[in-house]
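re: the backbone from monday

yeah here it is again, tokenized this time
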């Protein structure tokens, strides 16, 4: 009970901090609301004030509010997926980017963008509408399965093989995506550029609803797995003796993380290193206790991406810096720091 109380305490602090940052982000931007704050304009919109101008309504609700919610949802999912993978592989370097999962999602999304027009008419209407999203999920799932098969032997995962296979998949994905960029048309080229650099500029409430559904399904399965991941740190055989169904746990984490990363890539493009930075920070505070790390990563991931997105749309205003550049700039040095710290064990 004491552990749960501490966890709820930290989650409450994180949630309050997230709300404060969201309010600040809502007030950040080039557009002026006629001398009043963006928060007041949002309250007027919620109340249905007839005196609110159409431009104010559009900026506050369809641009800023939807973008803030998307940053919260995607940041949370990327962080939790990275934390889950690190628990599964028992290694702090196991993230969607490092093991090629993001690259696989990006590759199949790129194929859907450039070549989708040739086979879309033969697909059901529901699939046509979400072709890029489905492709991104399948790409992430296939990359995850391939890395797991290559790096795991006799129930043990070889970390070096995992990272090398991730590099190989990323390299293959990059080369094929480069070829698709070469043969793409102007409109397709813009979409591919958006995917490769990452951005939340295309946020809509429809996308946020889809992300919310994915997050509810994923978290209902993943977040209670803290104790199981703690048991996995002892080794798969010991975890089985403690009553953990190891194979079932592996399949659940592989499928759910692929679903989350694939959905994020489909809606925001490639936003790297969130799944590396967040668990690293939390591990400094809570060691490798996944009972704390897993749920707290959901909140800290939202905070990190929301801060990064607010900077990305204000640092070079009125232009926008792709958010993937900022997260990579932060994550690169942390990745090097982890490599140096764990170089002997690696």
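seq for it, each position gets an aa:
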């Amino acid at each position: 009970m004491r552990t749960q109380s501490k966890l709820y305490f930290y989650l409450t602090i994180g949630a309050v901090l997230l709300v404060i940052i969201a309010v600040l982000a809502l007030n950040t931007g080039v557009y002026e609301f006629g001398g009043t704050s963006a928060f007041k304009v949002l309250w007027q919109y919620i109340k249905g004030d007839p005196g609110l101008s159409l431009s104010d309504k559009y900026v506050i609700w369809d641009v800023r509010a939807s973008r803030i919610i998307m940053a919260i949802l995607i940041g949370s999912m990327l962080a939790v997926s990275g934390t889950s993978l690190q628990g599964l592989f028992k290694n702090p370097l196991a993230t969607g980017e490092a093991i090629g999962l993001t690259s696989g999602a990006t590759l199949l999304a790129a194929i859907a963008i450039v070549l989708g027009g040739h086979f879309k008419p033969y697909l059901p209407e529901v699939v046509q509408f979400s072709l890029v999203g489905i492709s991104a999920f399948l790409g992430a799932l296939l990359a995850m399965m391939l890395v797991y098969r290559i790096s795991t032997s006799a129930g043990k995962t070889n970390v070096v093989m995992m990272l090398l296979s991730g590099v190989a998949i990323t390299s293959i994905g990059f080369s094929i995506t480069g070829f698709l960029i070469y043969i793409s048309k102007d409109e397709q080229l813009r979409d591919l550029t958006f995917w490769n650099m990452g951005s939340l500029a295309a946020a809509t409430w429809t996308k946020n609803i889809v992300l919310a559904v994915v997050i509810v399904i994923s978290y209902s399965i993943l977040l209670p797995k803290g104790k199981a991941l703690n048991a996995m740190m002892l080794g798969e055989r010991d975890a089985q003796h403690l009553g953990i169904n190891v194979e079932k746990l592996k399949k659940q984490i592989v499928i759910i993380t692929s679903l989350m990363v694939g959905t994020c890539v489909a809606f925001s493009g490639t936003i790297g290193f969130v799944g590396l930075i967040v668990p690293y920070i939390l591990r400094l505070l809570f060691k490798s206790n996944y009972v704390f790390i897993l749920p707290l990563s959901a909140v800290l991931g939202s905070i990190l991406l929301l801060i990064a997105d607010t900077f990305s749309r204000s640092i070079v205003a009125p232009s926008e810096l792709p958010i993937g550049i900022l997260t990579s700039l932060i994550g690169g040095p942390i990745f090097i720091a982890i490599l140096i710290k764990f170089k002997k064990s690696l």
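The mean pLDDT is 85. The radius of gyration is 21 Å.
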